[in-house]
Give the backbone structure.
Amino acid sequence: MDFKTKPLPPVDPRFRGNKLDRDHAKNGYSLRALEALVDECNNQPSLWRVRADKAHAYYDIGKQMTREMEHKIRALWGIEPVQINLIHGVINGVLGQEARMRTDVVLEADDDDFQDVADVLSKQHKEASRESNVVMAVSNAYAGQVKGGIGWVEVSRAIDPLDYPVRAQEVDRREIYFDWEAKNLGLSDARWLIRKRWYDLDEACAWMPEHEAVLRQAINGWDLTLLPDTMAHALRQSFNAERETTIDRDEWADSARQRIKLFEVWYRVPASVVVLHTGPGRRIQYDENNPLHVMALQRGIVKASRTNTMQVRMAIFAGPHRLLDVGTNRRAFPYVPFFAFREDGDRSPYGLIEGMIAPQDEYGTRRNMINWLLQARQIRADSDALDPEYNNIKDLAREAMRPDFMAVMNPNRRNANALTIESNLQLQQEQLQAMQDAKQLIQEVPRVYSTQLGDAPSGVTSGIAIQSLTEAGATAMGELNDNYRYGRRLVHERILDLNIEDLSQRDLRVVLGSGQSKRVIVLNSWGPKGEPINHVKDAPIKVGLSDVPTSPAFRMQEQQQMSVIIGALQNNPAAINVLAPAFIEGSSLSNRKALADDLRRATGQPVAGDRSQQDAAQKAQGQAQALEMANKEAETKERQTKALVNESQAKLNMARAQQMGTESALRVREAMQPQPQPAANDEQTLIDDAIREARGGR
């Protein structure tokens, strides 16, 4: 009997939620807990945020000098300050590496039985990644990681029902506060994370219409007399909470702008859950609403055990007003951090620009000093050098730096060389050398070299050689890039979790491929004996990053290597038939996939996903099986015929032996009989008749 129609016994009370879970759902995150959280955020090391803001400012054009320094240059040197941004170009070269080194995301199944599920999730993942623009979000987070030491990506559901259901977007670092005691790069051990974000009042009211009265009263002032009695009691509690809270009102309310700052609090609480042991090293959380889990538990197919874990919940506050507090089915926060480096002491994050600010300042100072030295003049003049009727010493000091400077000399001066004007060119060369040293330090501090900035050394033309130099220069940024790849994988894991939720419908049919390669896969169904078929939530699907970048430069390098290999195998047509389609697929042709598949078909090679070839192979296999069965049947019939012939021959031989025995007996009998008497004619006739009958009538 199918288990779907067979009544199952009630679930064991041991495998239901406990009191601890219910208390969390009932009480939620209190206002006192929020106040303590806000205090903790304010007591965290805040200097790193100032340093991050400065690092981002130094990346921008025209922000490499403070106003105090600009005023000093104008006052002391008498020149207009010049700002030359060297950090911008170096950082852009680093950011360009992310695009060049970007690899594909691969979804793999640990079990071959779930390959169809992996194919469906791969298709859905590509669509979600494309529609949510995850590439741009991750690239922007990488920029924040490189510049200020940290970047953030949010993976969540779209609020607008008209948008694509999954969204991935960069989050401003200034909006996020996280548990400073967390050690894991992905914040898997963090107890809390809070995002503070401004919303226009009408937007917040449209999002949560059930709290519109509280929001408008909190922004525009409390007037409980204008409300019905049924609402006044609840609002009075909100009014008292706002009056008694320690949270500064200016931190979350803006009456002039008519906006409100919402505190989105994600937190973990201990919870008791049941896990199902589905295989060696594999465990999944038991869901009492999943018929498959219930069936497996009741029939003893899997073992179950209760354990303690951390449940993720989410609460939303408008200052002291709690608007929402719900449990989630997430295993992690929707915000993924991208750390560059963290200090050993207070674990403050920092990026590459942190070490480039000092040489940038020195370069800017030296550059302005050289500009001043180019105009500065050293004047030596005797007291009687100038004709006082036309000019004096003050005129000389004021006008000497002008290119059209003119002085009228005193014809009665004592010294012919009474006036000399010199420029300190030697000091200018020293300043120029110091400036060049500072420029070099901007690249050397983060260990960014010319190959990483797109400049190949002279004589280096090979793509492999350039790539080797680039990889050698990127060694110093190994930690940063490893953290980036880890964060990128976490982002795609978040997208995978949302896709699994969307594909958990019963008997969901998904079409893969097109044309002859089209096939339909049914998800979340059961077989005739109650066995699960393609259950998405239980599929062991993992997210991986390909080792080979997908940029045009790397594709060109692969083409060069493939050309060398094909050229070396010209005397081996079979090998060329295999390599030629791969060579076409690695090209930049728009129809490279179709051309490669056509070439494979022409050379008799299998084409992945080609239903016609699969059908032909299956037909050929069926014909071979039919021929084999026919041969076996013929052999069986031949053996049966031989057996019948042998049996007939044996019967014939036995009959002959019996006949021969009868004849011998008759001869003996005849010899033993006395000679018949002639007179006994009747008796003799009877004997003769008997003998003839025994002989068969002969």
